[in-house]
Amino acid sequence: MRATSVHPPLSNVQAELLKIFSADIPESHLVELRKIIAKFLLEKARDKADDIWDQKGYSDKKIQQILNKK
């Protein structure tokens, strides 16, 4: 098995996750935690995409025009 090396400093997210994962919790809790993290990151990505959409003045019509140019 290959050893994993950690290069400090850790980000604030990495440090917090290490605190969480240092506890011995059941696999079912890990699965639930992964889903929560994935949902959180998806919401942040959608929010950012919505911001960009609004900043650029996109609309469904505009996107169709862009797609039809190719």
Mean pLDDT: 87
Which assembly state applies to the chains in this document? single chain
From the N-terminal CA to the C-terminal CA, the straight-line distance is 48 Å
Order of helices and strands: HHH
Uncertain regions spanning at least 5 consecutive residues: none
Share in helix: 55-70%
**Anisotropy-based shape:** elongated
What is the gyration radius calculated from CA atoms? 20 Å
Beta-strand content bin: under 5%
Largest sheet: none
Summed up, the domain count is 1
Number of helices: 3
User: How many strand elements?
Assistant: 0
Summarize the structure.
The protein is mainly alpha-helical. It has 3 helices and no strands. The longest helix is centred in the middle third of the chain and has 29 residues, at 27-55.
Can you tell me about this structure?
The protein has 70 residues and is mainly alpha-helical. The protein has one domain. The protein is 69% helix and 0% strand. It has helices spanning 12-21, 27-55, 60-68. The longest helix is centred in the middle third of the chain and has 29 residues, at 27-55. The model has no long low-confidence stretch (mean pLDDT 87).
